[in-house]
């Protein structure tokens, strides 16, 4: 893992929903997707065979930033 983590709990909490989907990247394939409804979902995204795949980890704040990073590391280890 590159060790480049861009997100903080403060940044996540301050991110307000808009009329479009917002995607916040943390690095190493981990994304937080913020929907117009206000729902925040952790996703791991990767490319395989020239197409993008993704795995949903869970909802924030039920899954913390630290937990999402650990789950991302576990998932990327399986890829």
Name the quaternary structure.
Answer: single chain
In percent terms, what proportion of residues is strand? 35-45%
Q: What structural class should be given to the helix and strand makeup?
A: alpha+beta
Order of helices and strands: HEEEEH
Number of strands: 4
Task: Report mean pLDDT, rounded to a whole number.
Answer: 91
Mind telling me the C-alpha Rg?
Answer: 12 Å
Count the domains: 1
Q: Count of helices?
A: 2
How would a textbook summarize the main sheet? 4 strands, antiparallel
Overall geometry: globular
Strand order of the largest sheet: 1-2-3-4
CATH class assignment: Alpha Beta
- Low-pLDDT residue intervals, each spanning 5 or more residues: none
CATH homologous superfamily placement: Integrase, DNA-binding domain
The CATH architecture classification is: 2-Layer Sandwich
Q: What is the share of helical residues?
A: 25-40%
**Which fold name corresponds to the CATH topology?**
Double Stranded RNA Binding Domain
Q: How many angstroms does the end-to-end distance come to?
A: 13 Å
Quick summary of this structure?
The protein is an alpha+beta fold and 79 residues long.
Q: Could you explain how this protein is built, in words?
A:
- Strand 1 and strand 2 form a beta hairpin.
- The chain starts with 8 loop residues before the first helix and ends with a helix.
- It has helices at 9-14, 65-78, and strands at 22-27, 30-34, 40-48, 51-60.
- It contains 2 helices and 4 strands.
- The protein has 79 residues and is of the alpha+beta class.
């Amino acid at each position: 893992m590159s060790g480049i983590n861009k997100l903080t709990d403060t940044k996540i909490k301050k991110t307000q929903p808009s009329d479009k989907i917002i995607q916040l990247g943390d690095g190493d394939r981990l994304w937080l997707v913020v929907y117009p409804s206000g729902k925040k979902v952790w996703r791991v995204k990767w490319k395989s065979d020239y197409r993008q795949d993704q795995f949903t980890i869970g909802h924030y704040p039920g899954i913390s930033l630290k937990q999402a990073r650990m789950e991302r590391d576990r998932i990327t280890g399986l890829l």
